[in-house]
Amino acid sequence: RAPGLLGGLNSENAGPNDLRGFRVKLVLLGDSGVGKSCIVLRFVRGQFDPTSKVTVGASFLSQTMALEDSTTVKFEIWDTAGQERYAALAPLYYRGAAVAVVVYDITSPESFSKARYWVKELQKHGSPNIVMALVGNKADLQENREVSVQDAVDYAEKNGMFFIETSAKTADNINKLFECFVSHRDFPLDGEIQ
Ligand code: GDP
């Protein structure tokens, strides 16, 4: 099984807020081909369908997540669909984002190094309180693994990020990825979240 969630976030200064009842802008970042669209499709539609590319340019899908206490969180998920190359898009893309999900492919060290680049970009352009998750996707391809869990954990901890490995193909940890944000209690509830 893919490794589960790890800490890495400081709960000492946790505020009174969590995401129940809120609308949350979540941006996806990562190399082309790591599985960003497939992760979203798996979460939103419960399917794995690599042929249905829904994303053309920067677009978003929303998904309302029902919680056990019968409240909801509505994620507005932004997927760049490769447009992240255009620097001009960055300020608009990051604006108001409470959550950033940075995805790499566990079989591709290049995509891991690209993920580290995106984290730096987020640290530069994102809200200072943005909550970041590092996601190693394609965890079903264990035999082709080229990025170790330890390297990813070390990096995530150093940068105060959640870390999780997922598989959009098998659905492993996909819901868990989104659930982890719900219970995080120190969100910046400002900007476009209302
Ligand atoms: P994006 O460019 O980051 O949006 O990547 P896509 O979602 O288009 O996925 C790129 C390719 O990776 C697709 O052909 C998928 O079949 C494949 N893929 C995505 N997620 C997984 C996964 O979890 N496991 C495996 N084995 N393949 C995946």
From TrEMBL:
Which species does the entry assign this protein to?
Answer: Macleaya cordata
Domain of life, per UniProt, equals Eukaryota
Q: Does the keyword tRNA processing apply?
A: no
Q: What is this protein called?
A: Small GTPase superfamily
Keyword terms: Nucleotide-binding
Q: Name one GO molecular function term.
A: GTP binding
Q: Is the keyword Glycoprotein in the record?
A: no
